[in-house]
Design goal:
Keywords: Membrane, Transmembrane, Transmembrane helix
Structural class: mainly alpha
Strand content: under 5%
Number of helices: 4
Order of helices and strands: HHHH
Protein name: DUF3040 domain-containing protein
Shape: elongated
Largest sheet: none
Length: 89
């Protein structure tokens, strides 16, 4: 950057003091829904059944669907990130 650019940026920064910028609103996080482990087990069982059916029938769409369901179940099995961090402290 040229010295002129630095001067222009400094002048621009002086026009807008840091107090002029509004702060983002403080939001209270919404309460999480109760964790339903039975639903996750149901999704996992369905994923395994779809995967096995996809392998038995050699059908790519069933394989892909089973993998997506397995990924969804794995995502739901893991605890929320904030809960895991609080436990470590």
């Amino acid at each position: 950057m040229s010295p002129d650019d630095h001067r222009q940026l400094r002048d621009l920064a002086e026009q807008f003091p840091p107090e002029a910028a509004p702060y983002p609103p403080v939001r209270v996080p919404a309460p999480t829904t109760p964790f339903r482990r039975w639903a996750v087990w149901l999704i996992l069982a369905t994923a395994i059944a779809v995967l096995v059916t996809g392998v038995a029938l050699a059908h790519g769409l069933l394989l892909a669907g089973g993998l997506v369901l397995a990924g969804l179940a794995g995502q739901r099995f893991t605890p929320p990130r904030s809960a895991a961090l609080d436990r470590d402290r």
